[in-house]
Design brief:
Helix content: 40-55%
Distance between the termini: 80 Å
Number of domains: 2
Number of strands: 5
Shape: elongated
Strand content: 5-15%
Order of helices and strands: EEHHHEHHEE
Largest sheet: 3 strands, antiparallel
Number of helices: 5
């Protein structure tokens, strides 16, 4: 009890065999998208995605009697494809808008300059500058604005220092780090030699 092949060649093929072929194509397609988002290939595999989508639609529209297990595999493949496709479209849109998966700007797309110290994570230290100045300079280097004034910043740091020192039972100091296009503060224990 075969169905016409999905590529239109007229050969008779069981639904299970056709689904097996499409499952392999789906696996290859996910690999292509992973390579695209990883930067290995430059052009998104939209044509391959559209081709697989068309073949899935043709296979589901064909009348015929099929085993339940084959129909189930086909439905599962369709659902997986739809889920992955929605994710690919979202990630592609975010990339085109200059945002990463987390909603932050993507470096290397021309939207934001790389940090001045270009080796993330990097520590921004200077004995002559206060923590506030180092933090605001690092944010300015990334084209970001400081969200609070000096007094609010220092009050926040004081509260964090007190909480961390109470938890650790030792004194800490804060360093300014630039990591993944973000400016962060890292609390570090003060060793006896410091």
């Amino acid at each position: 009890m075969g169905l016409a092949s999905i590529d239109g060649t007229g050969d008779r093929m069981r639904l299970g065999e056709q689904v097996g072929i499409l499952e392999k194509e789906f696996k290859d397609l996910t690999t292509l998208w992973d390579r695209f988002f990883g930067g290995d290939i430059r052009v998104p595999p939209v044509r391959a995605r559209d081709h697989l989508q068309r073949r899935l639609r043709l296979l589901t529209e064909r009348p015929g009697v099929a085993r339940r297990s084959d129909s189930f595999r086909l439905e599962q493949l369709q659902h997986r494809f739809m889920t992955y496709n929605q994710n690919w479209v979202r990630l592609l849109r975010e990339r085109e808008e200059g945002r990463s998966q987390s909603g932050r700007p993507v470096r290397g797309q021309g939207q934001i300059p790389p940090p001045p110290n270009a080796r993330p994570p990097a520590s921004v230290k200077s004995a002559s500058e206060s923590l506030f100045e180092r933090f605001s300079d690092a944010k300015a280097g990334l084209g970001q604005k400081m969200g609070m004034d000096r007094e609010a910043f220092e009050n926040k740091i004081k509260a964090q220092r007190t909480a961390i020192e109470a938890k650790l039972g030792t004194s800490v100091r804060f360093d300014v780090l630039v990591e993944d296009g973000r400016v962060k503060l890292a609390a570090k224990k003060i060793r006896k030699t410091e």
